[in-house]
Amino acid sequence: MSVSRLMQMGAAGYLEIDPWTDPDIANASYDSVSFSVATQETSPVEITFNDDGSKMYIMGLFSRTIYQYSLSTEFDISTASYNSVSFSVASQLSLAGGFVFNNDGTKLYATGEGGDAIFQYSLSTAYDISTASYDSVSLDVSSQDTGPNAIEISTDGTKMYIIGWQNDTVFQYTLTSAFDLSTASYANKSFSVSTSELSPFALRFNPNGTKMYVLGTSQDKVRQYSLSTAFDVSTASYDSIEFSVNSQESLPHAMAFKNDGSKLYIVGQTNDTVYQYST
User: How many CB atoms are located within 10 Å of the residue 250 CB?
Assistant: First the structure.
């Protein structure tokens, strides 16, 4: 789940689901709670949740497939079970990188290698990937990075971001119509994380866009950055705050936060297992 996914469209507009407290990454601790996804996927590269934490999603690097799980207790991965529901993006990508939902779970955006682009999908039933279909809408990002590993989107849907292994840089895009990828263009804004991370694989923001989190495999750490202007990556700076997940996973490829910021979830390619942390 993108941490930006705290706002959900209701009858009166955007409604806050839970109060968010920025995670204390430096003092995070492992909950000794985990869940193996190896039966479905042996090369997981993405993890996300729906807004209420009743569903979890895993994406595979080579399978280029998203798998859907149910959690009987919200955001408690020890209660997860596979729904026997999946969705392939193999027609668009030769290697999967990551994906993200829009605020209400009716759109999905995926990126990765091969296509070197962001692709947009619609879900006729919110957060049910068995109802997903490709919109035939994409955005070429090869001029910025030919190895995009992760994707994020701002809370209001007017900004989108990728990070990849080619340039170790976060690139920012503008959507003139919120959540409509057909209106996206490169904003000529970027931020290099190469001084702190040479193999970035995951990217998340806090809901107001003042904090950014990057997960990489060079040292198996989550690192925290501050943005002086919300959601403007050109104003980012490293906080010198980090958290190692190496004791659980030596090739971490994806991370997600609980919708109030109190939990962190990591999955990677060494153990094909989701690990849960308190922040």
Answer: 13
Q: Judge whether 189 and 169 are in contact, CB under 8 Å.
A: no
Domain covering 22-278: architecture:
6 Propeller (2.120)
State the residue for tokens 């990849």.
164
pTM: 0.93
- Residue whose C-alpha is closest to residue 173's, from 114, 120, 242: 120
The three-class DSSP label of residue 230 is coil
Task: Give CA–CA dist 115/187, Å, rounded.
Answer: 20
Question: Which residue's entry shows tokens 């806090």?
Answer: 206
pLDDT, tens digit, 9 for 90 and up, residues 39-74: 999 999 999 999 999 999 999 999 999 999 999 999
Token pair belonging to 267 = 């999955």
| Domain boundaries of the chain, sorted by first residue | 22-278
SS3 content of the chain, % helix, strand, coil (to 5): 5, 55, 40
CA atoms within 13 A on the CB side of 257: 30
Nearest-angstrom CA–CA distance, 15 and 93: 34
